[in-house]
Amino acid sequence: MNYAKWIDPHAARRWVCGAMAMSFAVVAAAGPQTAAAPAAGADGLPFAPGERLVFRVEWNPPWYLFFLPSMEAGEAILSIAGEQENGDLKLFKIVFQARSSGTLARLAGVEINDHFEFYTSPGSFCTTSVSKRIREGKRKRDIDVTYFPDARRLYIREVNVAADPPRVDIDKYVEAVPPCVQDLFSALYSMRQRELRLGAAHRTLVGDNDRVKEIEARVEKKEFVNTPSGRYETWKVNTVALLGGLFKDGGQFRIWMTADGRKVPVKFEARVGLGKVSGELKQMTQ
Known about the structure:
This protein is mainly beta. The protein has 3 helices and 14 strands. The protein has helices at residues 9-22, 102-108, 184-191; strands spanning 52-60, 71-86, 89-100, 113-120, 127-136, 139-148, 153-160, 167-175, 201-208, 211-227, 230-241, 252-258, 265-272, 275-285.
């Protein structure tokens, strides 16, 4: 069957990449049951520079496209790539990469190769700066965000590098920004320090480009999940935005986290209008 005619490549690109990024937005849990967990950081954190998590990503079509099978969408890589000194402040460098592959990429005809970098304080996990290099088919954007907590503002610059010559689409300051905003992934690592227990709810101010949204993560239950890297006992956590949808067009996000002190995310699931995007941990190294 020719499946390509049923797939909107722009919608597929938006949801596969968006879910691969947003999927890690708020929480994670602990270490594996059947594989050895990397050692925690010397400063008592349940992670350390060098930790690298690789996820296999899959797309499941919505019910009304029941004749379409589940499809491989690509992989997502999340790592603490190192540390950087900024005056008297030590910062973690967090790197996220999203790469398309498999059936969905071939049918949609859109190649994704995104590279994001985030600098965050390992004490508060407040974000200091963000650099996004978005490469999604013909869509090529460079986005840089810098936070100024003392002035309660941020600066954002977005360049359309696909235009000839490159065009600056956004170049502005945003005022009335809370003094501590966490990017999607700093929020994840911040949550890995917290205790997870049945019924617990944690709220976080998460910034994405020039927007800030309050997100709540609710621990629903314990369950075992199987992934390419092994079988894990996990906490299942549901994530909701308190005002407006979690995603641009609504939808919901869940994440499964190992139920020990390492708090490593091993599975995620984003349900949206275009179906479900899920990811499973296939490799963990330090």
